[in-house]
Fold this protein.
Amino acid sequence: MRLLIPIVFVLMCLAQWFVPGKMIFDSEVTRREGILYKFKTRPIDPTDPFRGKYVTLSFEEEVINVDSTAGWESGDVIFIEFATDDEGFAKPSALYREVPSSDSYLKTRVNYVSQYDEETKLFYDIPFSRLYLEESKASEAERLYWESLSDTTQVTYALVSVGKGNAVLQNVYINDRTIVDIVREINLTRE
Amino acid sequence: MSKHVLKELPQLVDAGIISDETAEKIKSYYEQQPSQSANRLFIVFGILGALLVGMGLVLIIAHNWDELPHVIKLSVGFVPLLIGQAVAAVSNFKEKSKVWKEASAAGLFFAIAISISIVSQVYNIVGDLSGFLFIWMCLSIPIVYVLRSSVASLLFIIGITWYGCEAGYFRSGNSGYEYWIFLALIIPFYYIEFIKPQIKNNFFYFHSWLLTLSLTICLGLAASTDEELLMIAYMSLFSAFVSLAQLKEFQTGRVLSNAWLVIGSLGVIVLLLMLSFDFYWDGIDSGYSLQSPEFIASLATTAVAGFLLYKLTQDEPISQVNSKSMAFIAFILLFFIGLAAPWAAQLLANVLILAIAVHTIYDGAQRNHLGILNYGLLIISALIACRFFDTDLSFVLRGLLFIGIGVGFFAANYYMIKKRRKVV
């Protein structure tokens, strides 16, 4: 018993380092080895009690066509591969139930399946829908987004690195400039 | 207390009740004793300080300093974890005081949240709140046992309740069953620290309140398709609470400080008052699945309530047992009656509340306890108030009923106070 407590204490400390450490390792591997895609997006501005302000991204490509609604349940684990369209943005190209053999695919879950006009669409969860920002910048970023909406020449997209199952959101851009840079510039101009 | 005794000493010596020598002995005894209240205050402020610092750091991290490079942000985020672990190690292995252990446990508890938060921020990892709480609680449970920390245990109970609500209530497609595993992990601590050694300190009271509230909030996680069966589960849970409160290990000096009794008793009465309306009985049918989560929850809680009632009746005659311990048996009978004749079950639910109220008033009178007596009268008042909503009684009759209950309150309290004066 006297020896057990120090052992358990050390194991506890190791676990407390291992879990966030594994999160860092997985994210770094995805950032370095994953394929970069641009996802067209729309941001809004909510808050997480622990992790602070972030911009939530709503993606246009969170849907893929399937043959029928049969066999798809909400919450099913799926694997999606992406390709690039003529404008250079990501679009889902293949859907799997098992792990594919390629080096770049996203592991996610079925949100829901709907049928309309002989087309069956499978909506899936996008697990990289948050960009954490400094609290003063998050609402400014949201304002910029709404301004960019009224200006049809502006394109908002997220740069995402997709590895083997994991995906890491690297940044959000409005017309090829990061949203953080634009907010920083606005703040400097005001000063 | 000691100060008060010391002040009285000269008078006691003058009156010849104690000798000078005895007065000196008493004085030196109290001087050698460590001040209990000072110790307690030290523990309270130590823990409060650690909690506030921990929560403050979480908020500062949440600001998200995006001007800082990733490596620096990650390093800063892990500093609280490093310090928390170091202080915990020192307080544990150098046999430091309780204040050190509790404060370091609280600090380490929040340091884990900070380290996960900073990684999520840097890599924009979404993970919903329930996922975040799940990892946090998994990494925190060892703190409770390794440091034997009551504060960590209390924070853990709050955390798992939050997790249960996030995962089970606020998110579709998840039953939050992990809550029950977490709960099973923390119950042994409550038993080892308080129940087995019969320690009834403030931590025991806090644990009892949080556990009863947590169970009451999270039993509803079993809700799926046969929601009417949940009423059986809840009635059995509250009956089990009342039974537990009567076991020697869970008894407390005052009725109101016993969380198991207060939550259990109020729970039984509120449920019975709900059952005295027709909406529940109109909704039940006989087509329930024996594999539904509600059925399993009902079976489990009824088994526990039955076992505890059996244990109680082994030690004392059934007439001495709180009538609310048996409410689950009465309700299960009512449920089966309700399947055939809903109106009869509703009527019997009203009779049952009345019987419990009368028994409570009788119990209060027997034990010369004004609080219990008035609680019984309040139950009757609540029943009458409920009947205002769904019966067609005339205003005169309703008025007379309320006058009757008012007179009853006055007469019962007057009788009791008079009886007490006679005894004095």
Remarks:
- The interface with chain A takes residues 58, 61-67, 74, 78, 81, 85, 88-89, 92-93, 108, 112-113, 115-126, 129, 132, 135, 138-139, 142-143, 145-146, 172-173 of chain B (CB under 8 Å).
- The mean pLDDT of chain B is 85.
- The longest helix of chain B spans residues 395-423.
- The two ends of chain B are 27 Å apart (CA to CA).
